[in-house]
């Protein structure tokens, strides 16, 4: 889909996160100016309702749900 729109996958991902609402804020990290510029350019990517529906079909709400890190409270040293 990113290639179809002439953008990078990272820009598509950031544009999607930005479309989720004013209470959702992406925090991309980078060590290179090239990627910083790419990230900023994602704010100009327009996703149509059809684009958003297509992305939602591929990555539905709850698909990334769960613990970010394993529970380390039970690890004994």
Summarize the structure in words:
- This protein has 77 residues and is mostly helical.
- It has one domain (2-58).
- The chain contains 4 helices and no strands.
- It has helices at residues 2-5, 9-19, 33-41, 49-58.
- The longest helix is centred in the N-terminal third of the chain and has 11 residues, at 9-19.
- The protein is extended, with a radius of gyration of 16 Å.
- The chain starts with a helix and ends in a 19-residue tail after the last helix.
- The model has no long low-confidence stretch (mean pLDDT 88).
- Could you say which overall geometry the principal axes of the C-alpha atoms support? extended
Q: Low-confidence spans: pLDDT under 50, at least 5 residues?
A: none
Q: Count up the helices.
A: 4
Percentage of β-strand residues: under 5%
**Average pLDDT reading:** 88
Number of strands: 0
Tell me the major beta sheet.
Answer: none
Task: Classify the helix fraction into a percent range.
Answer: 40-55%
Number of domains: 1
Summarize the structure.
By secondary structure, the protein is an all-alpha fold. 44% of the residues lie in helices and 0% in strands.
Features:
77 residues; 0% strand; 44% helix; extended; mainly alpha
Topology at a glance:
Blueprint: H1 2-5, H2 9-19, H3 33-41, H4 49-58
